[in-house]
């Protein structure tokens, strides 16, 4: 049966690339949605089998929209993640390909892509107005359909190629270690493509501390520490029930079925914490963009 996989589109986003990478061995139909809530809702409501969204970027940190929707609006487990290198390209409409960069009055892109290229923009096009879009590929689409607009877009090479735009420059991000973490969610377990090497197995937890309990967070962290379970991420997000009320989101590098993790979870519950397992899943790391070009 053909699986449907929702992703943050349109075609040519970094999320699209990450989705193709994760599911390239599958007989699947990739369906673009314009916003992160639309993607997550599609799988929550059963319109789509699986979904892929960004969850953390190297420059901007956590993608709060993704985390808040996973916590507050949908109830679908994380089943995999890929840490993927982001190569930003400067795109231009062919009609303006030979113009000097100081002629351009606008740049379209996703806020994270702009942040990743801020120094470059200040250097080559400081006069341009920044117009934020829902995705990098949406910016490329706007450029394609408005040839009269003296504008640039920042996004994937593929977004430029598929829209007949000119790739003016590649790798324009300010820092070369520019990775984004994408997660796949779904109600069914998936065998990711065989050549993918799972470098780690992670478990993501949402922990609510008991109120008025001195040192509660310290004790939660100690349950992992003395079992030597490595934590790759910890952050707090508002419970939305009142000022100062927070959940902790903790990523631990072990399967939730491992005896040590089961022990840690039991101990955290015994402390009076509420624990929700957001997912226990393989984590893949792609170091070189070359491995995608197949
Ligand atoms: O706009 C895209 O191409 C996306 O896939 C979104 C997104 C993000 O949310 O950070 C993904 C990776 C890059 O960091 C820039 C943008």
From TrEMBL:
All residue ranges annotated as the ACT domain in the record: 205-282
EC number: 4.2.1.51
GO cellular component, one term: cytoplasm
UniProt pathway: Amino-acid biosynthesis; L-phenylalanine biosynthesis; phenylpyruvate from prephenate: step 1/1
Classification via PROSITE patterns: ACT (PS51671), PREPHENATE_DEHYDR_3 (PS51171)
InterPro entries found in the cross-reference section: ACT-like_dom_sf, ACT_dom, Chor_mutase/pphenate_deHydtase, Preph_deHydtase
Gene3D superfamilies reported in the protein's UniProt record: 3.30.70.260, Periplasmic binding protein-like II (3.40.190.10)
GO molecular function, one term: prephenate dehydratase activity
Domain of life the protein comes from: Bacteria
Sequence ranges assigned to domain Prephenate dehydratase in this UniProt record: 4-187
Reactions catalysed: prephenate + H(+) = 3-phenylpyruvate + CO2 + H2O
Pfam families linked: ACT, PDT
Keyword match Amino-acid biosynthesis: yes
Protein name: Prephenate dehydratase
Organism this protein belongs to: Seinonella peptonophila
């Amino acid at each position: 049966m053909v699986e449907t996989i929702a992703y943050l589109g349109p075609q040519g986003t970094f999320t699209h690339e990450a989705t193709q990478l994760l599911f390239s061995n599958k007989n699947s139909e990739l369906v673009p949605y314009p916003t992160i809530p639309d993607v997550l809702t599609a799988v929550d409501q059963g319109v789509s089998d699986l979904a892929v969204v960004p969850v953390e970027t190297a420059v901007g940190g956590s993608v709060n929209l993704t985390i808040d929707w996973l916590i507050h609006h949908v109830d679908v487990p994380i089943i995999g993640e890929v840490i993927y290198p982001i190569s930003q390209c400067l795109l231009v409409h062919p009609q303006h390909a030979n113009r000097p960069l100081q002629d351009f009055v606008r740049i379209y892109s996703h806020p994270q892509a702009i942040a990743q290229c801020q120094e470059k923009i200040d250097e080559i096009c400081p006069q341009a107005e920044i117009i934020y879009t829902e995705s990098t590929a949406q910016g490329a689409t706007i450029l394609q359909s408005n040839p009269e607009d003296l504008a640039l877009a920042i996004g994937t090479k593929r977004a430029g190629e598929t829209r007949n735009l000119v790739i003016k420059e590649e790798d324009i991000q300010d820092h070369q270690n520019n990775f984004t973490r994408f997660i796949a969610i779904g109600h069914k377990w998936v065998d990711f493509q065989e050549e993918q090497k799972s470098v780690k197995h992670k478990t993501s937890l949402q922990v609510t501390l008991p109120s008025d309990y001195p040192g509660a967070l310290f004790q939660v962290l100690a349950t992992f520490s003395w079992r030597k379970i490595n934590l790759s991420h910890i952050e707090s997000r508002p419970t939305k029930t009142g000022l100062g009320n927070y959940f902790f989101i903790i990523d631990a590098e072990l399967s939730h079925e491992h005896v040590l993790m089961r022990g840690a979870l039991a101990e955290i519950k015994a402390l009076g914490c509420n624990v929700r397992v957001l997912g226990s899943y393989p984590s893949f790391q792609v170091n070189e963009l070359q491995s995608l070009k197949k």
